[in-house]
Write a structure and sequence with these properties.
InterPro entries: GHMP_kinase_C_sf, Mev_decarb, MVD-like_N, Mvd1_C, Ribosomal_Su5_D2-typ_SF, Ribsml_uS5_D2-typ_fold_subgr
Shape: globular
GO molecular function: diphosphomevalonate decarboxylase activity
Organism: Moheibacter stercoris
Keywords: ATP-binding, Lipid biosynthesis, Lipid metabolism, Lyase, Nucleotide-binding
Oligomer: single chain
Bound molecules: ligand 2P0
Distance between the termini: 36 Å
Number of strands: 13
Structural class: alpha+beta
EC number: 4.1.1.33
CATH class of the largest domain: Alpha Beta
Helix content: 25-40%
């Protein structure tokens, strides 16, 4: 039996109540870009799960008898009618995995610690938090889980909502996508990174420069589709896997310059894919390039391991060890803040013990 299928529920479903969960966003170092049905990645990806940027969700449920999905979504207390269709689409996708979705009317109260349209994907943390709520509720209603199975199921469900969300379920470093290079890896859910991580990565910093606060220019659906029939797609899928293979000994040795070079290469490759697709897109803004030049200049002058990565957008994630926080803070104040929209940036980090 598929362990992710709907579990037997012993309890009477004529009950009301609520469950609550919290899930952070994540930043990919090895990027997921390109997928096939349903939500199967074309290459493995690896990410840092963040700490300060998260979604908190309370899922309230009350019994109903109609044969349909019923959900209302509130963001910071405000009803968001436009969010319900996406959640219902998610419910339809996970109908065989969670058996009680039509038995209840759901009210989802959600709050993000990061600003809306800050360029931090709320789909990863939002669908992660909702998936954690659903497995919690399944357990509360009488389903039984083996050790670790509940979290793995949450990651499986989150993937069906939004690919990158499956990585947010675990803290620290996570891997999603089946590859011989990572034992236990799967296309169906993410796993905690199983190998040794050097202490140089302890509390690794991610400062997100909010270069552009607007809506994403290219939705992830459109973006992933661009990899279908892309002339360089096959080479890209294998280079992502090769880069993951290169990263594993770097994470063990703690060579922060080798780490940074690989991470920048991955980010620029992702953008190169979008610049060479049909239609093509440039997702960086002039200030993205200016900030990159400042980061490279800083590195040349100080030889300190400050590197960047990018999501599918204009904002910059600056990655660096906590030991150089003061120097980076000076750089932000002197050269980078003025490149950010309204001078805004977000300070985050990945908890690696
Ligand atoms: C990633 N991104 O690995 C890559 C890098 C953006 C750039 O995954 O269609 O929102 O929901 O599965 O996860 C963004 O895509 O896409 C993404 P869907 P998702 O983080």
């Amino acid at each position: 039996m598929n362990p992710f299928n709907a579990k037997n529920i012993q309890q009477n479903l004529e009950v009301s109540g609520s469950v609550k969960a919290k899930c952070p966003s994540n930043i990919a170092l090895i990027k997921y870009w390109g997928k096939k049905d349903i939500q199967i990645p074309m290459n493995p990806s690896l990410s840092f799960t963040l700490n300060e940027s998260y979604t908190e969700t309370t899922l309230a449920y009350s019994p109903k008898t109609t044969d349909d999905y019923s959900v209302k979504v509130y963001l910071d207390g405000e009803l968001k009618e436009s969010f319900a269709p996406k959640i219902i689409q998610f419910f339809e996708r996970i109908a065989e995995n969670i058996g009680f979705l039509k038995n209840f009317h759901f009210e989802l109260h959600t709050h993000n610690t990061f600003p809306h349209s800050s360029g931090i994907a709320s789909s990863a943390s939002g669908l992660g938090a909702l998936s954690l709520c659903l497995v919690d509720l399944e357990e509360k209603l009488g389903a039984e889980f083996l050790e670790g199975e509940k979290t793995q199921k949450a990651s499986y469900l989150a993937r069906l909502g939004s690919g990158s969300a499956c990585r947010s379920i675990y803290p620290g470093i996570t891997v999603w996508g089946e590859t011989d290079r990572v034992v236990g890896s799967s296309d169906l859910f993410a796993i905690p990174y199983p190998y040794q991580i050097h202490e140089n990565f302890r509390d690794y910093q991610d400062t997100i420069l909010l270069i552009d606060e607007g809506q994403k220019e290219v939705s992830s659906t459109v973006g992933h589709n661009l990899m279908n029939n892309h002339p360089y797609a096959e080479r890209r899928f294998s280079s992502a896997e090769e880069n993951l293979g290169t990263l594993i000994p770097i994470l063990e040795s703690g060579d922060l310059h080798e780490f940074g070079k690989l991470v920048e290469l991955e980010a620029l490759t992702l953008h190169a894919m979008m610049m060479t697709s049909s239609p093509y897109f440039i997702l960086m803004k002039p200030n993205t390039l200016k900030a990159i030049e400042e980061i490279w200049k800083f590195r040349k002058e100080t030889n300190l391991p400050l590197y960047f990565t990018l999501d599918a957008g204009a904002n910059i994630h600056m990655l660096y060890p906590s030991t150089i926080k003061t120097e980076v803070q000076n750089l932000i104040e002197n050269s980078l803040k003025s490149l950010c929209h309204a001078g805004k940036y977000i300070q985050d980090f990945v908890k690696i013990s």
